[in-house]
Amino acid sequence: MKLTIMTYVYPMILSKVVKEQLIKYYSEDNLDYLLKNTGNEYKEILRRSPDIGGNKNSFMGTFLMGVYLVALYKNTKDKLSLDDFDLLVADGLRSFKFMKKQMKKEDLLSIEYKNKIKLAGKWFKKNEDKYPDNWQVEVRQEENTELTNIVFTKCALCVLCKNEGVGEFISSLCATDYITMSFSNCNLYRPTTLGKGDSCCDFYITRLG
């Protein structure tokens, strides 16, 4: 995968988010070294990852965040348990003001949101042969105004984790969905996931409260 301006922006933002959490575990000198190594690892992962469409892929931001977290996980495995890392990521997301602000603007039950996912799904399907390691997604029960039902039959983040030899980390990336969707005042119920070996990730998104 080629490095673009977008791929350079994400580690700059995310390193600031996780730094606040990592300071609990690392001295300032060690933390600077860790973040530098994580940034280098992030770029190497991208270079060896298969192309998934670049800026034409509306899920590219999700992929880049996943790559950064995989890189950080690889560089902290010797010090942090997976549970520790999950807590670090959860706390980091909850303090990520920009993401919270953006997600609050998104109505995940709206026709506009469902249409956005449908358009992404059509693009993924059209380019499946060109980008075989991409997502595949569809929207179901479109007429239900109290529910957004999204079904993924392929996930680029699952492919990423398996390719990088950190299959155990897939569940950690999956867990971030519950947090980010809560920023939109929504609840996520997901009985099946590709990461656990199921045939799909079945998202049921409803309004909180």
TrEMBL record:
Full protein name: L-2-amino-thiazoline-4-carboxylic acid hydrolase
**Entry keyword annotation includes Hydrolase:** yes
Q: Name one GO molecular function term.
A: hydrolase activity
Source domain of life is: Bacteria
Keywords tagged on the record: Hydrolase
Tell me if Hydrolase is a UniProt keyword of this record: yes
